[in-house]
């Protein structure tokens, strides 16, 4: 098999059609760059939805994985392993003040499921909510993953149609609306689950002060604040975690994507001991969660973020990139928005023709919800590479 066309054909015959990928067949990747099977080079401006913040095949993370492969990969949680405790301590150190226990899982959706189970149990056992009455408030246009429970409170018909009956106990309110949160809280409310910036909805940045307001409302009502930082975390928005822009600390945070350093699915829930302790042996778990290989990769992924100051880099280069995008002058552009290297350009017309043109010119970017194009390159990108990208993006969007 040699051509992109052949690879796409065999995939289409044998693979379920739950995605509609852009017509590029990637065969190799390094740093912010990827190559297709014909050898054409592209700048990756999606970063696997921010799972590749450290760049593709970062040598330090690859080496950590290889070293661990020679020792032990998988133990299950039936036994202890010599990586997990130190790794979780490392993770909590990076998370900073307010978090003192972590529960390791694999995918982001599993971390969100874990958080949901935890806050429900907290509601019954600590807050004193009557059995099976717990309510969790979520936002319209949320994206928290693909499990049956999670899609049950999605508002996107593409994600939830004909997957019912949905898990009860979720209340949907508008995003960026603290008053709506206040109004939706009842004595049965155990938590508010929200993204600090809505990623999949198209990089929707809430008003300044939103996180502080919802933090106060949750505190005043004995409701736990769960921030889903699976996409916004680990430097993407110009701080290690997006909530640090407003100096608030959630009660629970879900993490994933870049925690796996672009190599493995590695996720976690972090919280405080008194909340996390509702889990007792047998109440939750995962065969692979916390496996030594993931811990080794997670450790290295965190080291790279801290040592290379990728959060600061994202802040500086992100402002520069955003300014460059804002200079693009064409009436088809409705809005340019973002924080750090998490940006989007929203058009007045369908974005797909422009993403296709960008790909022809060597930039991998994907449209979200028809009208917006997200630009979220690996945080190891250089200023020169951003200049190169801005040139092409400007040319394509002004054409
Ligand atoms: C990607 C994402 C998830 C789901 O993560 P998976 O690893 O795909 O299960 C959850 N929440 C947010 C905010 C995400 O961006």
Mean pLDDT: 97
How many helical elements?
Answer: 14
Global morphology: globular
Topology-level CATH name of the largest domain: Aspartate Aminotransferase, domain 2
| Total tally of structural domains | 2
CATH superfamily of the largest domain: Type I PLP-dependent aspartate aminotransferase-like (Major domain)
Strand content: 15-25%
- Output the strand order for the largest sheet: 4-10-9-8-7-5-6
Q: How many β strands by DSSP?
A: 15
Instruction: Report the radius of gyration as a whole number of Å.
Output: 21 Å
Topology pattern, helix = H, strand = E: HEEEHHHEHEHHEHEHEEEHHHEEHEEEH
Question: Which architecture of the largest domain does the CATH hierarchy give at level 2?
Answer: 3-Layer(aba) Sandwich
Major β-sheet profile = 7 strands, mixed
Structural class, from secondary structure content? alpha/beta
Report the span from N to C terminus: 36 Å
Task: List segments where confidence is low: pLDDT < 50 over at least 5 consecutive residues.
Answer: none
Q: Helix content range of the residues, please?
A: 25-40%
What ligands does this structure carry? pyridoxal-5'-phosphate
CATH class of the largest domain: Alpha Beta
Question: What are the SSEs and their pairings?
Answer:
Elements lengths: L3 H11 L11 E5 L2 E4 L4 E4 L2 H4 L8 H11 L14 H12 L5 E5 L2 H20 L7 E5 L8 H5 L4 H4 L9 E4 L4 H7 L4 E6 L15 H11 L3 E5 L23 E4 L11 E5 L1 H4 L15 H16 L2 H17 L6 E7 L2 E6 L4 H9 L2 E2 L1 E3 L3 E4 L7 H16 L1
Parallel strand pairs: 3-13, 5-6, 5-7, 7-8, 8-9
Antiparallel strand pairs: 1-2, 2-3, 4-10, 9-10, 11-12, 12-15, 14-15
């Amino acid at each position: 098999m040699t051509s992109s066309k052949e690879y796409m054909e065999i995939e289409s015959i044998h693979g379920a059609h739950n995605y509609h990928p852009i017509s590029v067949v990637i065969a190799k990747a390094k740093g912010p760059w990827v190559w297709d099977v014909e050898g054409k080079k592209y700048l990756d401006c999606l970063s696997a939805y921010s799972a590749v913040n450290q760049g593709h095949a970062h040598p330090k993370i690859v080496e950590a994985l290889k070293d661990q492969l020679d020792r032990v990969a998988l133990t299950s949680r039936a036994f202890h392993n010599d990586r997990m405790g130190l790794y979780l301590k490392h993770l909590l150190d990076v998370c900073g003040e307010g978090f003192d226990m972590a529960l390791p899982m694999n995918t982001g959706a599993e971390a969100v499921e874990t958080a949901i189970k935890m806050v429900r149990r907290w509601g019954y056992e600590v807050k004193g909510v009557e059995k099976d009455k717990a309510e969790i408030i979520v936002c319209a246009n949320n994206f928290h993953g693909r499990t049956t429970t999670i899609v049950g409170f999605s508002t996107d018909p593409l994600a939830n149609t004909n997957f019912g009956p949905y898990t009860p106990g979720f209340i949907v309110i508008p995003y960026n609306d603290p008053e709506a949160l206040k109004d939706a809280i009842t004595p049965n409310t155990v938590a508010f689950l929200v993204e600090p910036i809505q990623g999949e909805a198209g990089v929707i940045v809430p008003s300044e002060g939103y996180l502080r307001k919802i933090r106060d409302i949750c505190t005043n009502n004995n409701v736990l604040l769960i921030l889903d930082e699976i996409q916004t975390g680990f430097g993407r928005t110009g701080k290690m975690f997006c909530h640090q822009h407003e100096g608030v600390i959630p009660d629970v945070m879900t993490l994933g994507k870049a925690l796996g350093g672009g190599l493995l699915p590695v996720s976690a829930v972090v919280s405080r001991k008194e909340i996390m302790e509702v889990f007792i042996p047998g109440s939750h778990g995962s065969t692979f969660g916390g496996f030594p290989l993931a811990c080794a990769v997670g450790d290295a992924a965190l080291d790279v973020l801290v040592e290379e100051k990728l959060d600061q880099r994202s802040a500086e280069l992100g402002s520069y990139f955003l300014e460059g995008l804002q200079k693009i002058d064409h009436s088809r552009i409705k809005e340019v928005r973002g924080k750090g290297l998490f940006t989007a350009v929203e058009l007045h017309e369908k974005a797909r023709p422009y993403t296709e043109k960008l790909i022809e010119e060597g930039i991998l970017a994907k449209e979200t919800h028809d009208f917006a194009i997200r630009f979220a390159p690996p945080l190891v990108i250089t200023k020169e590479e951003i200049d190169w990208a801005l040139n092409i993006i400007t040319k394509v969007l002004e054409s």
